[in-house]
Design goal:
The complex is a heterodimer of chains A (291) and B (308). Chain A folds into two domains: 49 residues, no CATH class; 210 residues, MetI-like fold (Orthogonal Bundle), CATH 1.10.3720. Helix content of chain A is 70%, strand content 0%. Chain A contains 13 helices and no strands. In chain A, helix 2 crosses helix 13. Chain A starts with 19 loop residues before the first helix and ends with a helix. Chain B has 308 residues and is mainly alpha-helical. Chain B is built from 14 helices and two strands. A two-stranded antiparallel sheet of chain B has the order 1-2. In chain B, strand 1 and strand 2 form a beta hairpin. The radius of gyration of chain B is 25 Å and the shape is globular. Classes of the chains: A mainly alpha (291), B mainly alpha (308). Chains A and B meet through helix 1, helix 3, helix 4, helix 5 and helix 8 of A and helix 1, helix 2, helix 4, helix 5 and helix 6 of B.
């Protein structure tokens, strides 16, 4: 009588004891990842800890003090009363930039993805060429131009030159290429104008890309330094990067207060990122991997 | 079917469909012409003038460029920027790729948490990183000195990262690693995950071990992304400005050890007020960036890949 042996499973059951090299390899991998993740996070954790330590405790405890204190924040409020103003300016400017860029970039991206028109290739070439030339080339003539337009030291001077994002146009074009033409035609049959089609049909289905773009655009504007530094002269118009950079010069030794200011400055971006994380990673890598 | 419907829709719809795209790209084209194209052309002309502020111009021909190449400060700026770029790119990319490979293992759990941790520094703008690291690099008490001292006791606790001309560049490179390794890792990770699994299986059937698989499957698979990351990281590094400018408290650092090309441009154009000279610096930087990018694409064979 022959006994039929059970066929081996396609994947043998894991027997860790027999595979010490695999276990060791995996343990080393996890260990390395944890170590590097810690290196990435430690400065940020330290920042939070430092912001909530009294100046006397700052260097007495490596990280968190057993006596948390908000002294740095009250210090900031009394010694740099303009700080709130910087934050409001930054919020206002960045939100405006996001809205304007979102509208113009998605509109142009839509046109380049879903229409055939004369000069389309030329527009694409112009866009690519713009991306090749670094922004520093145009700083001087742009400043001169804004002087003539009397836009120096104004918010429009900060916002208008960057109102369209070439990167954004590419991003939206890429995602809108995949929209089925039938969807657009259906809207047209229903009597939608081309702009209505864009607003009521195309934009709602582009939500993931909108999320990604909003974050990228917000981060770019929130963190931007060189152009605001050139264009803004009055302290009451400063954004957070400009204000904080000046504070470093004025209050070099008030580390705790500077850390409180830094923490408050990066908080909005971190909150927005946590909200839009998934879309962001997808949007960031879409162009590079597919293109 | 589409044409029939459009014909039925009548003239107004056809008219709309024809002109809508022009309307939709017009904001871009107008803004680009005024704030992009015009300044680019203008900067070529401007670079031939000596200026004092936005109004006072004197034609000087190519002497801005001539002065640029004889100015020892510009030499320092170029050298610093080049050294920074070299170390940043050549430490950053292998680290980023290594982390991405570790993170792309199939069996790994909690990948998105690791990715979040690695990516988090990228959220902090350069100015804010500059302020934070200025404090982290404080001699005696700073976290960096304490951390390294705890690991290697011979490391002097009073190392002045930002006050010692020899240490400024290592401080900048170290900070840049913290900022950008995770960011570039995201790209590598996406590329690794897009490589066809079957290719690995085929390679395994052919008896390829880990290293061979890496050479034969992984490298060709991620090459387009790797070249993209290489070129972008180089371009970004060559434009270094905010980080040293904040970290070194609005100065070029001891012995100008933190002077970069863009800082040089900013100081000459917008502190001293010579916009013409700043344009000359800008174009020199642009041509330098273009040349280096082209060489990188040539050497890595990115063009050949694009043609295929």
């Amino acid at each position: 009588m022959s006994r039929v042996l059970p066929a081996p499973l396609s994947r043998p059951a894991r027997d860790w004891s027999r595979q010490p090299p695999v276990v060791a390899g995996r343990a080393a991998t996890v260990l390395a990842l944890v170590a590097f993740a810690a290196l990435a996070l430690i400065p940020l954790v330290w920042l939070v800890a430092a912001a909530f330590k009294s100046p006397a405790d700052l260097f007495s405890y490596t990280f968190f003090s057993p006596r948390p204190s908000v002294e740095n924040f009250t210090d900031l409020a009394t010694r740099v009363p303009e700080f709130g103003r910087f934050a409001v300016n930054s919020l206002f400017i960045s939100s405006t930039v996001v809205c304007v860029q979102l509208f113009f970039s998605s509109l142009a991206g839509f046109a380049l993805a879903k229409y055939d028109f004369k000069g389309k290739a030329l527009v694409m070439v112009i866009m690519l060429a713009t991306m090749m030339i670094p922004g520093q080339v145009t700083l001087a003539p742009l400043y001169e131009l804004l002087c003539r337009l009397r836009l120096v030291d104004t918010y429009p001077g900060l916002i208008v030159p960057g109102a369209v994002s070439v990167f954004g146009i590419f991003l939206f074009r890429q995602s809108m290429l995949q929209l089925p033409n039938d969807l657009l035609d259906a809207a047209r049959i229903d009597g939608c104008s081309e702009f209505r089609t864009y607003l009521d049909v195309v934009m709602p289905v582009s939500k993931p890309m909108i999320g990604a773009f909003c974050l990228i655009s917000f981060m770019g504007s929130w963190n931007s330094f060189l152009w605001p530094q050139i264009i803004l002269h009055s302290a009451n118009r400063f954004t957070l990067p400009i204000g904080l950079n000046q504070m470093v010069g004025l209050y070099q030794q008030s580390y705790g207060m500077l850390m409180a200011g830094t923490l408050l400055s990066i908080l909005p971006v971190i909150l927005l990122f946590l909200l839009l994380q998934k879309e962001f990673v997808a949007g960031l890598t879409a162009g590079a991997v597919k293109g | 079917m589409r044409t029939a419907e459009r014909a039925a829709g009548g003239g107004i719809f056809r008219f709309q469909q024809r002109f809508a795209p022009y309307l939709f790209v017009s904001p871009f084209l107008i803004l680009f012409t005024v704030f992009g194209l015009y300044p680019i052309v203008k900067s070529i002309a401007l670079s031939l003038y000596a200026t004092n502020g936005p109004k006072d111009h004197v034609f000087v021909g190519l002497s801005n460029y001539r002065f640029l190449f004889t100015d020892p400060d510009f030499g320092v700026a170029v050298r610093n920027t080049a050294v920074y770029t070299f170390w940043t790119v050549f430490l950053q990319l292998p680290l980023a790729l290594g982390l991405a490979i570790l993170l792309s293992q199939n069996w790994l759990k909690g990948r998105s948490w690791f990715r979040l941790a690695f990516f988090s520094p990228q959220l902090v703008g350069q100015v804010f990183v500059g302020v934070l690291f200025m404090v982290l690099y404080v001699p005696q008490y700073g976290l960096v000195n304490r951390g390294i001292h705890a690991a290697i006791t011979s490391f002097p606790l009073d190392t002045k990262w930002l006050g010692d001309a020899r240490m400024v560049m290592p401080a900048l490179v170290l900070t840049s690693l913290w900022m950008y390794v995770g960011f570039n890792m995201i790209y590598f990770l996406a590329a690794l995950q897009a490589v066809d699994r079957e290719l690995y299986e085929a390679a395994m059937v052919d008896g390829a071990n880990g290293w061979h698989q890496f050479r034969a499957v992984t490298v060709p698979g991620i090459k387009p992304v790797a070249v993209y990351v290489l070129v972008m990281a180089t371009i970004g590094s060559l434009q270094l400005f905010e980080l040293p400018y904040t970290m070194l408290q609005q100065s070029a650092g001891p012995d100008k050890s933190g002077l970069t090309i863009v800082m040089y441009l900013y100081q000459n154009g917008f502190v001293s007020g010579d916009l013409g000279y700043a344009s000359a610096v800008g174009w020199t930087l642009a041509l330098g960036i273009l040349t280096i990018s082209l060489i990188q694409m040539r050497v890595t064979g990115a063009w050949k890949g694009a043609k295929e």
